[in-house]
Amino acid sequence: MSSIRRKYAVLAICCSSLFLVSLDGTIVNVALPSIARELNSTVSTLQWTVDAYLLVLAALLLLSGSLADRFGRKRVFAVGLTIFTTGSLLCSLAPTDTWLIVFRMFQAVGGSAMTPVALAIVTNIFVLPRERARAIGIWAAVSGVGIAAGPLIGGVLIDSVGWRSIFWINVPTGAAAIVLTLLVIRESRASHPRALDPIGQLLVVVFLISLIFAIIEAPRFAVLSPWIIGGGLVAAVSFTALLRYESRHPEPLVPLSLFTQRSFAGAFVIAILGFLAFNGLLFVNTLYLQSVRDLSASLAGVLTLPLAAATVIAAPLSGRLLSAVGARRPFLIAGACMASASLILIAVTPTEPVLWLTLPYAIFGVGYGMLNAPVNDTAVSELPDDQAGVAASLISTSKQVGSALGVAITGTIIAASPGDSMVAAFDARAWIVWVIIAACGLGIVIVARSWPSRRSPARSSRPARG
């Protein structure tokens, strides 16, 4: 196999793992009402069904990057694929919502070793700036395809076979990816891998779990209850301890020095805001279409196709803009589209025809499609070779943290008054959700304005690191 063909074969294999993760996210969201009906789940349980996966993913991404740098990216990637595929099968067999949450956590252990490690593999073989920008544009487009396929395929499967079938489709794709990984991808690792940091890892886990617990369980326990106050205090203390410990550690799990680089820090913040907005919209929109508008899962999936189609179209355009003029313009478009779409949703009432929703969905899809390529490229392109794994893991962590916060915050707003019906909850508080998501879009615009309007000559002439 020629060098070029091997590169794109590796890109295809790595993109298959991203497709699985992207598909899994949107399929699970569209299945939530069906899961609630069969397993008698509350809104908070549905939040945990999504966020348990996201939290484990976020907590272990950094560890997976360190392990990949030390023991080999191919090896860790293959193990991750195996665990994710097995976890998908277990989720399809879950007898209760508690077991579903447990199996989702197991699935996430594998997912933590898939997307960031795959991105590190891709950036390791595509070294020229334009070549890398093109590859990352393809990477972002695949994410859009997964998002597009999720609601449509998931809706058809849920209405015809049942919600358990949404996990079955991961199994043959995952198995094929495992075999191809072993046959095609060459091993790579950092020249000077960092030492493991178990205390830093523990502090990350405690911080994320306590923070999300305090947000999700606030409606059930009340904001001023000892449980919620205690969760908030634990989150604050563990976060403070994490910063102090990592700043003194010779090889920290979270290299705080990366955040002194303006481009990386900005991409990290934008990723949190963008994925908070996107996953908050997905979670609330699923409940709205099926529980308030009383649509079937398949019809709800069809209705969200404008969002997915716009994402698929915008993703490669974002890659081209990134290659031509740098990250600032696609970031500005992303933030403006997310904010404007959310503000339009405030004006849509339950009595409006559902087709009115397609306009803000499409606008939001353009924004999300514009986001991924510049986030990924900005986060990794100006870092040394031996930080490929940790940089990819950090930016992936920011996405998962943003996603978990999006589900936690928006779900908690809707469930703020536990006695309300879903219709009453949306009528009273949905506007707050859209304002928060619009604020995230505005935040992206504010951060993006600090970027230069074009790539600097130094960057464009320097081969991007692997």
Automatic annotation (TrEMBL):
Its main location: membrane. PROSITE patterns: MFS. It is found in: Cell membrane. It comes from the Bacteria. The chain crosses the membrane at residues 45-64, 76-95, 101-128, 135-154, 166-186, 198-216, 222-243, 264-289, 295-318, 330-348, 354-371, 401-419, 431-452. The keyword Signal does not apply. The keyword Transmembrane helix applies. This is DHA2 family efflux MFS transporter permease subunit.
